[in-house]
Design a protein that fits this description.
The complex is a heterotrimer.
Chain A lengths: L2 E6 L9 H17 L2 E8 L12 E6 L8 H15 L3 E5 L2 H14 L3 E11 L2 E8 L4 E7 L4 E5 L16 E4 L10 E7 L13 E5 L9 H11 L3 E3 L1 H5 L20 E5 L5 H7 L4 E5 L7 H4 L2 E3 L3 H11 L3
Parallel strand pairs in A: 1-2, 1-4, 2-3, 3-9, 4-8, 5-8, 11-12, 11-13, 13-14, 14-15
Antiparallel strand pairs in A: 5-6, 6-7
Chain B lengths: L1 E5 L2 E3 L21 E3 L1 H17 L2 E7 L4 H11 L3 E6 L9 H15 L3 E5 L10 H9 L3 E11 L2 E9 L2 E8 L2 E5 L11 H10 L2 E5 L10 E6 L8 E2 L4 H14 L6
Parallel strand pairs in B: 1-4, 1-6, 4-5, 5-11, 6-10, 7-10
Antiparallel strand pairs in B: 2-3, 7-8, 8-9
Chain C lengths: L11 E2 L5 E3 L6 E3 L7 E2 L10 H7 L16 H4 L1 H4 L5 H9 L18 H5 L6 H14 L5 H13 L22 E2 L7 E5 L3 H5 L1 H16 L4 E3 L9 H5 L3 H15 L4 E6 L2 H10 L9 E3 H5 L14 E5 L13 H8 L4 E4 L21 H4 L7 H11 L4 E4 L2 H13 L6 E4 H8 L8
Parallel strand pairs in C: 5-7, 6-7, 6-8, 8-9, 10-11, 10-12, 12-13
Antiparallel strand pairs in C: 1-4, 2-3
The chains are: A alpha/beta, B alpha/beta, C alpha/beta.
């Protein structure tokens, strides 16, 4: 059977990320409707056990040159895999490796490409992707007709569990010549140091506003943030009072944040604050004033008092 | 070091974006176009590189609405040369592949040491410019770049991998980089200097031939995502609301177990 | 303090032959040589003139070095009350070698003008600060918040970065028809120049809507520019972007030139100031009123039937009062409101205490926080609350949000902050659209 869908696994350091399993799950579905196999490309150095039971075949490029990441080198390896597998569809994520490799691969093959996909389907031989554009303001229905159809997918679009399976794919080692002559060389991978607070880097933020009342009351919310292992953020008045240092400030004169979830506690939603967080994925607002402007941008809201809500949350989340 | 910064315009996201009558593009008639914010970061990095290692910064753009303003602002910030490539449809949606092909044609004739552009743009459904450009030119590339250090005929690049992890690699020049963030925030261009640039800095117009772009995905339709309405109010006691919030967090994978 | 002076090395005088004779005993002492050692009179101070020269070379910067250190400016400087500031202190800073162009202190002045009012040498910080700031901005030394505001103003024609096409969205909730000149360009009596904060800020929009209803009730023929309106940008000018101000002025003058109107009425003292003082120097002359000046003679035309039983204190905006001499019109309007008891704060009229919003201060709160024990608006709110007032009345669009925030952060939530237009409306019988 030919390989219908090739998923490019993106493990550059540490564990295989969830998004690879998400793509495997969806890829299996697509491969089945296209009547072909699901392949997974594994590119790295010292490639050990492959938790890719969902795939039928794994194309492995294992070379010491690939122990550190350099896009052009990995691209050469991926190109070789694509030539060996000859898939109808190539799936990657919109993480860094996807941004580096997907568009470049598609351009060099003269193949159609769709990025920022949040959904995928087949219509006969055509691949149809739904892509998010303009900062999420518009969706595009995109049809890919050439081969291979290259799609990069936004992480979180599909369930990861669908791609986890026991067993192992059959392995095909792919020899690649000239990995050292790609014009680039990976040097090192550096894990982040735990220095200071960067609220812009967190997927989830617990943010407090004037409703907290006093510096002492902050402890209550800090506990919740600690249990969730996320930083505490705050609106301007909290910072101005000196209850939290400046790096925690969200808003016009603080930081702009775009977490997947923004939990706003006791924040009224002044325009200056909204400017810093309105593009958060999901905004959950807690404010005793049902007319607080924050409810106009929040996705979920509650008028329960934050002093009652926070301990309940902390308890349920393991505090 | 001879650096080229590729910039482009985008519909200003402060606007309410509407879909045109055919449903295949945004309605471009009343929209204001502004410089892509990541391209501004790329320009800033280029200017910083010029300040540290010397050289020239050339800013290249296609023929798009209000692009002259963006080019003059770049000159006000310190860019040396402004180039506008003509031949594309200025009022339509110029897809990434076509953009890159036009710019690649000019780059082949002008051989810079380094090409910087923003890591992405809000409408690049065909994928991100840096990688596409590099593929067409056969040059090394890297995107989501947050650090650039020239080193003779090479450049050492720091990429953000996510979760704060960084990958460091060296690329042989000429190379194409997709900039995520410059080493400092984009500098301010005093308005008086922009007005001065309008008077004194010429924009070179260069025609490029119709490019080959290979197979492009077809955008069948654009549509707004399903409407949300106002906040969905969670009802019940504090305990009940807490349950609902925890469920929301769980469904987004933000809580273990 | 004498300016300049170059420190001269000590010049020693020793007399080779010197004899001192007592006038009482006639006894003589020989103090030849070393014992007769003296120092010649000389200049001891070592102030370089370079700092002053750099500033005096700027158009508008000449007056800084006239200061002779009397110190009258310091007690009236609003920033000194909550920090360490004042014209005399800045002069001393420059004299002792500090570089004002790169100092944080450059951004702390709100150009309130109280120092100029009392200065016997007429050192004019309203001219000096913008001149120095212009150079700093050109060099790239501009606080981040302010940079964002300048960029937004240039791009969108308003300091808030809001969509220019929604500039007249506030008219939807006005309850009365508001003519937009682009849709109906026939001649009009009053061009109501709304400005940014009344157009876009929720509290400003409420005041704008109230004002529209008042104008309708008074039978005033008025219209707005709507989406064509751009901010006049006087505060941006004072914060160092003269280029931006001039670019805006070109657009504003061109837009105004397309319509026929008798006078411009604005709620914004900063726009008022520019139209009255700055535009004429570029050759553009209009008849301009602050909205309280329009309302004061019209108060008897309004159906003021509902007494506003409240103790109200009034904050004189710097750019309406001190800069342009308009103190009475707002008071006339307030006194015409039945039931309203007007109490003055100690620092009122010419000595009004700045809210901190002028000269770019509106966008520098974060930057200046390190230098101030509290915000100027907080200091002022304490003063207002101390009068026992229930309401702090204002008539500058910057003030409502500044004072409301300050009321909350100083624990004075009981003090309501209302624009004069809102107070007038509270006293009016409800207006119907047919009226």
């Amino acid at each position: 059977m030919a390989v219908a869908v090739l998923v490019v696994s993106e493990r550059l350091v540490g564990e295989v990320p969830d998004v690879t399993f998400e793509l495997l799950g969806k890829g299996k579905e697509l491969a089945t409707s296209l009547g072909g196999e699901l392949g997974v490309a594994v590119i790295g150095s010292g490639v050990g056990e492959l938790p890719f039971g969902a795939a039928d075949v794994a194309y492995v490029v294992d070379d010491p040159v690939l122990s550190s990441y350099a896009p052009s080198v990995f691209e050469r390896a991926l190109r070789a895999v694509v030539e060996a597998a000859s898939p109808s569809v190539v799936l990657m994520s919109t993480g860094t490796a996807g941004i580096d490799l997907a568009a470049s691969l598609a351009a060099s093959l003269g193949a159609p490409m769709a990025s920022y996909a949040i959904d995928l389907a087949t219509e006969g031989e055509t691949i149809v992707a739904t892509s998010q554009l303009y900062g999420g303001k518009l969706l595009a229905e995109v049809a890919l007709e050439g081969r291979p159809a290259v799609v990069s997918v936004i992480p979180g679009s599909f369930p990861a569990d669908a791609g986890r399976a026991g067993g192992a794919p059959r392995i095909e080692a792919v020899p690649v010549a000239g990995l050292g002559e790609a014009g680039a060389q990976g040097m090192s991978i550096r894990e982040p140091e735990a220095t200071g607070v960067d609220i812009t880097a967190s997927d989830l933020l617990v943010s407090v506003g004037r409703g907290i009342g006093s510096k002492e009351n902050l402890e209550l919310v800090q506990e919740l943030a600690d249990v969730l292992k996320v930083p505490l953020a705050a609106s301007r008045p909290i910072i101005d009072q000196g209850w939290l240092p400046k790096p925690h400030q969200v808003g016009k004169s603080g930081k702009k944040v775009k977490p997947a979830v923004y939990l706003a506690l006791g924040i009224s939603g002044a325009p200056e604050h909204l400017e810093g967080m309105r593009s958060a994925g999901t905004i959950i607002a807690c404010n005793t004033d049902p007319k607080a402007p924050i409810f106009e941008v929040a996705h979920y809201g509650t008028t329960v008092d934050l002093f009652d809500l926070v301990p309940e949350l902390t308890e349920r989340l393991g505090g | 070091m001879n650096i080229v910064v590729v910039v482009r315009q985008l519909a200003d996201l402060v606007e309410e974006l509407e879909v045109n009558a055919e449903g295949t593009d945004i309605d471009r008639d009343f929209v204001k176009f502004v410089a892509n914010e990541w391209d501004e970061a790329a320009l800033e990095e280029a200017l910083c590189l010029k300040e540290t290692v010397g050289g020239t910064v050339t800013v290249v753009a296609l023929d798009e609405p209000d692009v002259d303003q963006t080019l003059w602002t770049a000159a006000a910030k310190g860019a040396d040369r402004l180039v506008k490539l003509t031949g594309n449809d200025p009022d339509g949606w110029v897809r990434t592949r076509e953009r890159a092909a036009r710019v690649a044609a000019w780059l082949r004739d002008n051989q810079p040491d380094l090409v910087l552009t923003g890591v992405q743009a809000a409408d690049d459904v065909d994928g991100q410019t840096a990688g596409v450009l590099a593929a067409m030119l056969g040059w090394p590339h890297a995107a989501v770049v947050v650090g650039v250090e020239p080193d003779g005929s090479q450049v050492t690049v720091t990429q953000e991998l996510g979760g704060g992890t960084l990958a460091i690699s060296t690329l042989r020049t000429p190379a194409v980089l997709g900039i995520q963030a410059a080493r400092q925030a984009p500098r301010y261009a005093p308005i008086s200097r922009i007005r001065q640039a309008q008077q004194s800095t010429p924009i070179e117009e260069v025609g490029v031939p119709e490019p080959e772009v290979g197979a492009l995905a077809t955008v069948r339709r654009l549509f707004p995502p399903p409407a949300k309405g106002g906040a969905q109010m969670l009802e019940g006691s504090a305990a009940e609301v807490a349950e609902q919030i925890v469920e929301i967090l769980r469904s987004k994978g933000l809580v273990r177990a | 303090m004498p300016i300049g002076g170059r420190k001269v090395p000590a010049q020693v005088i020793e007399l080779e032959e010197a004899v001192v004779t007592s006038t009482i005993s006639g006894r003589e002492w020989d103090v030849s040589g070393g014992p007769s050692r003296m120092l010649a009179p000389r200049v001891l101070s070592d102030y370089s003139r370079r700092g002053f020269e750099a500033i005096a070379a700027l158009d508008g910067g000449e007056s800084l070095e006239w200061c002779y250190g009397c110190g009258r400016c310091v007690p009236v400087c609003p920033v000194d009350i909550v920090g360490e500031y004042g014209l005399r202190k800045l002069h001393r800073m420059v004299q002792t070698g500090a570089d004002l162009f790169s100092a944080d202190q450059l951004w702390m002045c709100t150009t309130c003008g109280n120092c100029l009012r009392v200065c016997p040498k007429q050192v004019n910080m309203i001219k000096v600060m913008p001149a120095v700031r212009e150079v700093a901005v050109a060099n790239g030394t501009i606080p981040n918040e302010l940079q964002g505001v300048m960029e937004k103003t240039f791009r969108y024609g308003n300091a808030l970065g809001e969509n220019p096409r929604r500039r007249h969205a506030w008219t939807k909730g006005a309850g009365v028809p508001v003519r937009v000149l682009a849709q109906d360009p026939s001649p009009v009596d009053v061009l109501f120049y709304v400005e940014d904060y009344w157009s876009y800020h929720p509290r400003g929009q409420q005041a704008a809507q109230a004002f529209a209803r008042i104008l309708t009730a008074a039978g005033v023929d008025f219209a707005i520019l709507g989406a064509e309106e751009k901010t006049i940008g006087d505060s941006q000018r004072l914060a160092g972007e003269r280029g931006l101000f001039e670019a805006l002025m070109e657009d504003v003058v061109a837009t105004l030139g397309r319509y026929e109107f008798r006078r411009i009425v604005t709620p914004d003292p900063h726009a008022f100031n520019a139209l009255v003082k700055v535009y004429p120097s570029y050759g553009h002359h209009y008849e301009v009123l602050h909205y309280t000046q329009l309302l004061a003679p019209l108060m008897d035309k309004l159906p003021l039937e509902q007494p506003v039983e409240a103790r109200v204190t009034f904050h004189d905006p710097c750019y309406l009062g001190r800069h342009n001499g308009v103190y009475d019109a707002p008071r006339e309007v307030l006194r015409a409101i039945p039931g309203l008891e007007l109490v003055e704060m100690g620092r009122c009229r010419e000595n009004s205490y700045c809210c901190g919003g002028g000269g770019g201060g509106m966008w520098l709160d974060g930057f200046n926080a390190n230098h101030l024990s509290e915000r100027l608006s907080e200091r002022r709110v304490r003063e207002a609350a101390a009068t026992g007032a229930d309401i702090l009345a204002v008539c500058c669009p910057y003030e409502v949000s500044r004072f409301e925030d300050a009321a909350k952060s100083t624990g004075n939530e009981h003090l309501r902050v209302l624009d004069i237009a809102e107070l007038v409306e509270m006293a009016m019988a409800p207006v119907s659209a047919e009226a």
